[in-house]
Design goal:
With 44 residues, the protein is mainly α. 86% of the residues lie in helices and 0% in strands. The protein is built from 2 helices and no strands.
Length: 44
Amino acid sequence: MLQTIAIILLVLWLLGLVTSTALGGFIHVLLVVAIVLFLLRFIR
């Protein structure tokens, strides 16, 4: 489940970079959180 969320957030983040919308910063924060959660799950 976390991998799916991380992939979705990665795609949204890339779209935010391309379109340069105001949500780009918010999506970037969500991407960082998703990566941290993914790494915690991978380490365990």
